[in-house]
Design brief:
With 404 residues, the chain is mainly beta. Helix content is 11%, strand content 35%. The structure holds alpha-D-galactopyranose (GLA).
């Protein structure tokens, strides 16, 4: 339709001073059709809708970006904390529901202590005593979790204002968010330029999150997303009946401050064995020192990677009631499975629902916690001039029955 309309316009346009005579008209028409058929001309007007989400305490205006694909899946992201604020996906009956915890207002995100939906950096998870050594220098970070630095410190990437840009393509909606973290911010060395892109393909139900960063001084980087999922779409409901599968034979046990001991411990025969789909709640209250330290699950699993560093399956979650299935794929070596143990019903979530204990779970793809202090863990060092890249995909589908 659009092309025909444009075509008429073009032909009419030629009926002026640049009048083209009949034998040439068909040539022009052919040429124009050729241009229209090329992928460039096919590019749709982007369907990312932008609106004002609120104003920060400092008076900065924050945008909400809505990415909606042809299948009805819809992701909303704000440039405060580069946070995913809602994710609507179909259930087995075709009904759409929002499957991530969040707040209705910007104030909610400014006051948030649970990292709902946020981009986490510069270093996701804990660095023991907020300290590490790099190139023979000791760096001291801001501490915000007892003696530790958690999720980037007192004011991590989740409390920063990012710059949004629409980078949509003909086959996908693409939102790019950028932020420059200053040299010395929260104690980390090097000015770090970061980009996070949220990509929603027009024809498939998956949200891809890609991370990119460069630094001007050697530093450590570990970026992730801290979405809390509840696949039932009912945020007052516990997630204990969700069945979880993790592609991991080992996990990194922790001490009482949730700092890895450095061991890689086999999961076999323990409540940490999710090599077969198992209800999250089936062993969560067992007498187990690791579960006690985490007040439930709050641990890093070592992902089995069959082929190098590419995108590989990490986890799969099935919610029997709605039939929703979430698959997580990543290029990262680890995944933090956190069962929402610190949610205590004091924060008011979307629709006024209080965020109660274990009503959401996180699958934070990452390098292992406290890697800068564990030379035996995969390195999180980013050298000056090098590029950091990481990709995670949240893929949705449905399954008919409870049986696999
Ligand atoms: C991560 C940590 C948890 C907790 C949550 C946020 O998952 O590992 O211990 O801090 O973030 O509450």
């Amino acid at each position: 339709m659009v092309n025909v309309y444009l075509l008429n316009g073009v032909i009419r346009g030629f009926e002026g001073p640049f009048m083209i005579h009949p034998p040439h008209t068909s040539l022009v028409v052919l040429l124009f059709l050729f241009v229209c058929a090329s992928p460039e001309a096919d590019r749709p007007t982007s369907r990312i809708q932008v609106s004002t989400f609120g104003k920060t305490k400092e008076g900065e205006e924050i945008q909400r970006y809505v990415l909606a694909n042809n299948r009805g899946m819809e992701a909303s992201v704000i440039n405060y904390g580069a946070a995913l604020v809602s994710l609507r996906v179909p259930g087995r009956d075709g009904k759409m529901a929002d499957v991530v915890l969040g707040y209705d207002t910007l104030e909610g995100y400014e006051q948030d202590k649970s990292y709902f939906g946020a981009t986490i950096g510069r270093y996701g998870n804990r660095i023991a005593r907020g300290q590490f050594m790099l190139d023979e220098t000791v760096f001291r970070l801001s501490t915000n979790d007892g003696p530790n630095c958690l999720h980037g410190g007192v004011r991590g990437f989740n409390k920063r204002v990012w710059t949004g840009a629409d980078r949509s393509r003909s086959d996908a909606l693409v939102l790019e968010l950028s932020y420059t973290s200053q040299d010395g911010e929260e104690g980390f060395p090097g000015s770090l330029q970061v980009k996070v892109t949220y990509t929603l393909p027009l024809e498939s139900d998956e949200l891809q999150i890609a991370y990119w960063a460069t630094t001007n001084k050697d530093t450590v980087v570990n970026l992730t997303n801290h979405s809390y999922f509840n696949l039932s779409g009912v945020m007052s409901r516990e997630i204990l009946d969700h069945q979880l599968l993790l592609h991991a034979l080992k996990f990194t046990p922790v001490d009482e401050h949730l700092i890895p001991t450095g061991d890689l411990q086999p999961v076999q025969g323990s409540p940490f064995d999710f090599t077969r789909p198992t209800a999250i709640g089936s062993r969560i209250d067992q007498e187990n020192q690791q579960l006690k330290f985490g007040r439930g699950y709050d641990h890093n699993w070592v992902l089995e990677r069959s082929t190098g560093n590419g995108l590989q399956p990490a986890a799969e979650v099935f919610e029997p009631g709605s039939g929703r299935v979430l698959e997580v794929l990543t290029t990262e070596p680890g995944i933090q499975f956190y069962s929402g143990n610190f949610l205590d019903g004091t924060a008011r979530g979307k629709g006024g629902v209080m965020c109660a204990h274990r009503t959401g779970f996180c699958l934070e793809t990452q390098h292992f916690p406290d890697s800068p202090n564990h030379p035996n863990f995969p390195s999180t060092v980013l050298k000056a001039g090098q590029t950091y890249r990481s990709i995670t995909v949240f893929r949705f589908s449905t399954r008919e029955t409870r049986a696999r």
